[in-house]
Design a protein that fits this description.
Helix content: under 10%
Bound molecules: flavin mononucleotide
Number of strands: 14
Number of domains: 2
CATH superfamily of the largest domain: Electron Transport, Fmn-binding Protein, Chain A
CATH architecture of the largest domain: Roll
Length: about 220
């Protein structure tokens, strides 16, 4: 198909406001092809489908329950993410959203519900600790997911070199500073730069979370 097959995009002349997008124009075969002529500012099309072409299912075709269940097929580890205020107050919660992002620079990611009580503490803090839990720490995972006034009472922990609370006996830990804090739907997405880390010498079995249940490696 030669360049002559492209039609000029008539919306170029409309002087529309809106997002700058790479428009596509039709060709005689009915396919959509990008046009170098059509990088422009255009208003959203009223007749455009909100569903991306690559989406295997329309957005409205699944319930929140189905989304949760499908996400639950992805087995994760379990962490406790915790921070300490300048006044010394500790805040922390159980998180399975932790994951790696980048080796250089060393970045990790996790997310916290906008409804969660520790949110303000994490948004304001200079550093936080991520402790990867072992099979033996299942009770701690439950404790840090339940509503209770002081989750740290009686829990063996220490304050790391960067000031972050770390759970004793975990299989690995990371002390992080904020790289970015970004609203993401009903959660807030935290990307942390790892400034210190440690790993257990004994390689204990790791606590896992899969289909709504705890397990282990
Ligand atoms: C295995 C497991 C993983 C969880 N992962 C997350 C998570 O990644 N993000 C989140 O916001 N809540 C997560 N939660 C729920 C929080 O731990 C829980 O809502 C916590 O109690 C929030 O703090 P709050 O109760 O003080 O508001 C998880 C809970 C469990 C049991």
């Amino acid at each position: 198909m030669g360049a002559g097959a492209f039609r000029h995009n008539p919306r170029r002349r409309q002087g529309l406001a809106g997002r700058e997008i790479l428009q596509t124009v039709g060709n005689p075969d009915g396919a959509l092809l990008p046009s170098a002529l059509s990088l422009e500012r255009a208003a959203p099309r009223r007749d455009a489908s909100p569903v991306p072409k690559h989406s295997p299912r329309p957005l409205a075709a699944f319930s929140e329950r189905e989304l949760r269940d499908a996400l639950g097929e992805f087995a994760t580890g379990v962490t406790i993410i915790a921070t300490r205020s300048p006044a010394g107050e500790l805040a922390g919660f159980t998180a399975s959203s932790f994951n790696s992002v980048s080796l250089d620079p060393p970045l990790v990611v996790w997310s916290l519900s906008r409804q969660a009580s520790p949110l303000a503490a994490f948004e304001a803090c200079a550093s936080y600790g991520i402790s990867v839990l072992t099979r033996a720490q299942r009770a701690l995972a439950l404790r840090f997911a339940e509503a209770m006034p002081d989750r740290f009472t009686g829990v063996p922990h220490r304050i790391g070199t960067q000031g972050a609370p770390l759970i004793e006996g975990c299989s690995a830990w990371f002390e992080c500073r904020h790289h970015s804090v970004t609203p993401a739907g009903d959660h807030v997405l935290f990307v942390g730069e790892v400034v210190a880390l440690g790993r257990s010498d004994t390689r204990p079995p790791t606590l896992t979370f899969h289909r709504g249940s705890f397990g282990s490696t």
